[in-house]
Amino acid sequence: MPDNGGVGHFNILRGHLDGLGERGVSGVKVVGDFVPNYQQGLPSELAVATLFDPTTGVPLAVLDATMITAARTGAMTTVGARYLARRDSKVLAHAGARGTAWWNVTMLDDLLDLDEIRVTSRRPESREKFAAELSAELSTPVRVCATAEEAFDGADVLVEATRLTEPEPLLRTAAVRAGAFVVPYGTVSAVELDLLDVMDKVVVDDWREARSGRFGSLRRHVDSGRLSEDSLYAEIGEIVAGRKAGRETATERTLFWHRGLSLLDVAIAHLIYTRAQSTNTGTMLRFH
């Protein structure tokens, strides 16, 4: 890790997928996570992805993965909502205005017949700007909230995507009413330790990834044993594949924690790469 006074860190994700192209494809994504970047007019997360031929190691492509990271995250949130949220959910509350926020809100609005979108973030200028951008794109009314407590109170869908540097309970357990769908995925915990006590179903994208690393909104819950293989309801893939049920009643409280999978980054990067090839888009670089 760089000696930068703790202002940020890098995540390095790697993966290989068979069945893509003639020989499959391998890839690596490096994403920086630097909360103070807004002071320089930059996103907090900036990323680059590289694709490789797995039989020779020859680099195939270098891609800007900032959008890939944000869009993939929003898509995963929305896949969770498709199976775990009430389809008659009317109020979406979103805490955090970083790059993934746009994709979370716009995709959820496309999926659900919402009556209101509530947004908040720590800085007033950030939440006001985010709300203005959403209002210019969506027909659903967007309400700016000064606090997370105001945003989450009584909401049907609660998304916590904040940029804390130290744990702080922004999404309180008492705000989660019957029938709510909760998505906490901030880097540092912004939920109370008893949040899982009120949940009827807890779902993750991948249990192995949920147990790894020192970051994640439910890190304390895993480390303390409150979230374990026994208390976990399912991985989202099991639900999508029909091996386990998603939401079954209108009153269930459901939670989806997604850490992000490198295989999805590789798959999306490969899709962009093949489309660029077919349209002769991009710049060819000499490797040797």
Task: Quickly describe the structure.
The protein is α/β, with parallel strands linked by helices.
Structure notes:
Helices cover 28% and strands 23% of the residues. The two termini are 30 Å apart. It is globular, with a radius of gyration of 19 Å. It has eight helices and twelve strands. The longest helix has 19 residues, at 66-84. It is of the alpha/beta class and 288 residues long. The strands form two sheets. The protein has an eight-stranded parallel beta sheet. The protein has a four-stranded antiparallel beta sheet with strand order 1-2-3-4, with helices on one face. Helix 1 (66-84) runs parallel beside helix 2 (99-111). The mean pLDDT is 92. It folds into two domains: 8-64 and 263-278, no CATH class; 76-257, Rossmann fold, CATH 3.40.50.720.
What is the topological layout?
Layout: E1 8-17, E2 25-34, E3 45-52, E4 59-64, H1 66-84, E5 91-95, H2 99-111, E6 116-120, H3 124-137, E7 142-144, H4 148-152, E8 157-160, E9 181-184, E10 201-204, H5 207-210, H6 219-223, E11 234-235, H7 236-240, E12 254-257, H8 262-278
Features:
alpha/beta, Rossmann fold, single chain, 28% helix, ODC_Mu_crystall, four-stranded antiparallel beta sheet, NAD(P)-bd_dom_sf, Ornithine cyclodeaminase family protein, 288 residues, ODC_N, eight-stranded parallel beta sheet, globular
CATH topology of the largest domain: Rossmann fold
Biggest sheet character: 8 strands, parallel
Looking at the overall shape, the CATH architecture of the largest domain is 3-Layer(aba) Sandwich
Q: Please name the fourth-level CATH homologous superfamily of the largest domain.
A: NAD(P)-binding Rossmann-like Domain
Oligomeric state of the chains present here: single chain
Helix fraction bin: 25-40%
**SSE order:** EEEEHEHEHEHEEEHHEHEH
pLDDT averaged over residues = 92
- CATH top level class name of the largest domain: Alpha Beta
In DSSP terms, counting alpha (H) and pi (I) runs of 4 or more, how many helices? 8
Give me the side-by-side strand order of the main sheet.
7-6-5-8-9-12-10-11
Low-confidence stretches: none
Q: How many domains is the backbone divided into?
A: 2
Structural class by helix and strand composition: alpha/beta
Shape: globular
| Strand content bin | 15-25%
Total DSSP E strands? 12
Rg of Cα set: 19 Å
Distance between the termini: 30 Å
